[in-house]
Write a sequence for this structure.
């Protein structure tokens, strides 16, 4: 359940931004979670709701944007789409892949008031 | 109360000239009540900043740091005890032990005569860079090897950089050979995979070749060793790898 500590970090970011940018409530929080990242979106949403209680993010809507998995195939010399880390290159069937996208875990923006 | 003129809304009839339709009941020309602020911040940014501080701390002290990760019961502590016994005469060694509870593992390491700091994560499922930084301050280690034995867990420690030189993932032959594809993030984050308890192979159906293939599917660059902390088979390659790593930063 590292999602719990990750959502606590999200709350810390919210509190820093609330002080810096003078807002009292977060209405919508947009979070990018890559398809190949190490977190479970449902679990993030569940933990976020729990840790947001009593903070500026309480009751906010968590919008999760899934960014697609992508890798550079060293054999084909091109970028390919990758749904899971153990998948082969759809072109050559090989595994000489360098992940180039889909590992994101970041707060994109927030709708605040 | 109206925030513009201070009138009590319920008492003043026909005073709606500046009372907008927004949620706050006021409207200010040119100013929307909700706004979007760009954040573009990695959630692990704070951990990564601590990890970078640790990395500088270790570089200044020429300390080679390994983050050992695995499921519970893979034999991390047994491997560490054997490794410490084999290498302690050649180089300074210290160990940071991460567990949810107890000092048991640190005690086992201390019996070898080297310093071990136990970090209890309580309910936490992984070590983070801040915990390691705090523990490292208590170590007086220069020019040696620091082993960080992470909490036994193949999921959570994958995302947390501790400032180590390498993550080393240990997989025992009593587990499934398909763990690299079941827990791909961890095997993708590691530079070395150790297949441990190899002395038990004759009694099991664990397919080492398949395990290697699975690991290389998620991480084509991963280095793989097979060893037994019980018999000592294969441990020389592991010791040599550590010595080479340490020489590389000395």
């Amino acid at each position: 359940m590292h999602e719990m500590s990750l959502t606590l970090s999200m709350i810390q970011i919210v509190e820093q931004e609330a002080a810096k940018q003078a807002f009292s409530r977060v209405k919508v929080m947009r979070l990018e979670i890559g398809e190949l990242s190490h977190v479970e979106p449902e679990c993030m949403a569940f933990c976020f709701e729990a840790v947001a209680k009593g903070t500026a993010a309480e009751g906010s809507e968590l919008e999760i944007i899934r960014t697609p998995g992508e890798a550079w195939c060293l054999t084909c010399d091109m970028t390919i789409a990758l749904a899971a880390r153990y998948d082969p290159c759809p072109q050559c069937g090989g595994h000489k892949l360098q992940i180039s996208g889909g590992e994101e875990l970041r707060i994109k923006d927030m709708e605040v008031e | 109360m109206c925030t513009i003129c201070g009138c009590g809304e319920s008492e003043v009839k026909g005073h709606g000239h500046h009372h907008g339709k927004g949620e706050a009941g006021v409207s200010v020309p040119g100013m929307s009540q909700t706004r979007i602020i760009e954040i573009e911040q990695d959630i692990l940014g704070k951990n990564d900043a601590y990890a970078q501080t640790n990395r500088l701390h270790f570089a200044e002290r020429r300390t080679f740091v390994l983050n050992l990760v695995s499921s519970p019961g893979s034999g991390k502590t047994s491997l560490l005890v054997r490794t410490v016994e084999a290498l302690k005469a050649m180089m300074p060694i210290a160990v940071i032990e991460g567990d949810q509870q107890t000092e048991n593992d640190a005690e086992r390491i201390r019996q070898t005569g080297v310093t071990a700091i136990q970090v209890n994560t309580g309910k936490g499922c992984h070590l983070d860079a801040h915990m390691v930084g705090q523990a490292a301050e208590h170590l007086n280690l220069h020019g040696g090897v620091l082993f960080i034995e992470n909490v036994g867990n193949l999921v959570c420690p994958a995302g947390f950089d501790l400032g180590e030189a390498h993550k080393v993932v240990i997989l025992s032959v009593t587990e499934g050979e398909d763990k690299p594809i079941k827990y791909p993030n961890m095997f993708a984050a590691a530079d070395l995979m150790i297949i441990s308890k190899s002395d038990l192979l004759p009694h099991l159906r664990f397919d080492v070749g398949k395990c290697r293939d699975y690991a290389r599917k998620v991480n084509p660059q991963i280095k793989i060793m097979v060893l037994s902390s019980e018999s000592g088979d294969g441990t020389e390659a592991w010791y040599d790898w550590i010595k080479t790593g340490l020489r590389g930063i000395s």
